[in-house]
Amino acid sequence: MRVAIAGAGAVGRSIAGELLENGHEVLLIDKAPTAISVERVPQAEWLLADACEITSLDEAALQRCNVVIAATGDDKVNLVVSLLAKTEYGVPRVVARVNNPKNEWLFNESWGVDVAVSTPRLMSALVEEAVSVGDLVRLLRFSHGDANLVELTLPEESALAGTQVGDVEWPEDTSLVTIIRGTRVLTPSREDSLEAGDELLFVAAQAREEQLEDLLSVRREDS
């Protein structure tokens, strides 16, 4: 897979390193000469250019990329890069970094963004995930389909504890994708039973989040 990353700062270089370790082809783009540090990620391609310019993106052969990541520290730049990648070059997957949470509402399909990653929101979500039981925590927003990756730790008193996945009437537009149980990561089947303390990860439409939280957190009636 070929991936272009706009922004060769610490975030961009870190992403590039991870992708290269997984066998992907990576191009780092930055307009600041001081950011071009080939020795830090020598396996990547490097391009000194303004990623907001069509001529630069032509030189980067963006139409050959499977994914573009807009990872600069400037939200305006990330939006422009995302829009150009999607509309001018038809890149299948565009991921954009959100620096200021107040701008998060802009990072959607109208600007060519498939996945928006807000560092402040993600850090907050990880804190909530670590301390919350029975509360739905939004980890990641997908622009297409208005869906989110959400997590909930099943509380001890949940009526669903001990219930098989296939016997639960899940809300529409929700999908249970992973069960984290201790150190194990499970791909759920219909026969798997839910246990108190399970971390459940769903892809869910935003309109269904409250319904999903109510279903998972419902308490057993006292006998």
Can you give a write-up of this model?
It comes from Streptomyces fuscichromogenes. GO terms for molecular function: potassium ion transmembrane transporter activity. There is one protein chain. With 223 residues, this protein is α/β, with parallel strands linked by helices. Helices cover 24% and strands 27% of the residues. The chain contains five helices and eleven strands; from the N terminus they run βαββαβαββαβββββα. Strands 3-2-1-4-5-6-7-8-11-9-10 form an eleven-stranded mixed sheet, sandwiched between helices.
Short description:
Residues 1-117 form the RCK N-terminal domain. The protein is α/β, with parallel strands linked by helices and 223 residues long.
Strand order of the largest sheet: 3-2-1-4-5-6-7-8-11-9-10
Q: What global shape is seen?
A: elongated
For the CA atoms, what is the radius of gyration?
20 Å
Tally of strands: 11
Question: Based on helices, strands and strand pairing, what is the structural class?
Answer: alpha/beta
N- and C-termini, Cα separation: 56 Å
Helix/strand order: EHEEHEHEEHEEEEEH
Number of helices, where a helix is a run of at least 4 consecutive DSSP H or I residues: 5
Beta-sheet strand percentage?
Answer: 25-35%
Mean pLDDT over the residues: 87
Low-confidence stretches: 125-131
User: Helicity, in percent?
Assistant: 10-25%
Largest sheet: 11 strands, mixed
Features:
transport, potassium transport, 223 residues, elongated, alpha/beta, Trk system potassium uptake protein TrkA, K_uptake_TrkA
